[in-house]
Amino acid sequence: RPVVMVVPDLELISEIMLFSEGFTNAKVLAKKMTVLYQLAKEQLSKQHHYDFGLRTLKSVLVRAGVLKRQMGSADSKADSSSEAGVLCRALRDMNLPRFVFQDVPLFHGLINDLFPNPTTPNIKH
């Protein structure tokens, strides 16, 4: 009996999750995020504990939604640059602790290339 398995469409999943978390610019942000993970998978060193799959993607998107809600309670205006900043912050918060020292500058470079000059929010924890 044949079985068919399909690779999940990470960009579509990201877009839907970002929309559900309240991001208005979700289509562009989802594309950038999936490109970032693809480039990170290709360019960062190969470590056993690195995961750029659906599980990590979902964790980052949930964290971005939490940060957006925290920012929304402090500031009601949410433009595309602040949304990109929220996503950048979530990407940094969730990924940097896993990286070895040599990969941190490379990851920062990838983020800065894909998200130039984001408005990163100051959020109280």
Poorly predicted sequence stretches spanning 5 or more consecutive residues: none
Task: Give the strand content.
Answer: under 5%
Q: Secondary-structure element sequence?
A: HHHHH
Task: Give the helix tally.
Answer: 5
Mean pLDDT: 85
What would you report as the Rg, rounded to the nearest angstrom? Answer: 15 Å
Q: Give the oligomer, counting copies of the same chain as homo and different chains as hetero.
A: single chain
Helix content: 55-70%
How many individual β-strands? Answer: 0
Major sheet: none
Structural class: mainly alpha
Distance between the termini: 52 Å
Shape: globular
Structural commentary:
This protein has 125 residues and is mainly alpha-helical. It is 62% helix and 0% strand. Helix 1 packs parallel to helix 3 and helix 2 runs antiparallel to helix 5. The radius of gyration is 15 Å and the shape is globular. 24% of the residues are buried. The model has no long low-confidence stretch (mean pLDDT 85).
Which labels suit this protein?
125 residues; mainly alpha; 5 helices; 62% helix
Q: How is the topology of this model organized?
A:
Elements lengths: L9 H11 L5 H18 L10 H21 L5 H16 L7 H12 L11
Helix pairs in contact: 1-2, 1-3, 2-5, 3-4
Short recap of the structure:
With 125 residues, the chain is mainly α. The chain has helices spanning 10-20, 26-43, 54-74, 80-95, 103-114.
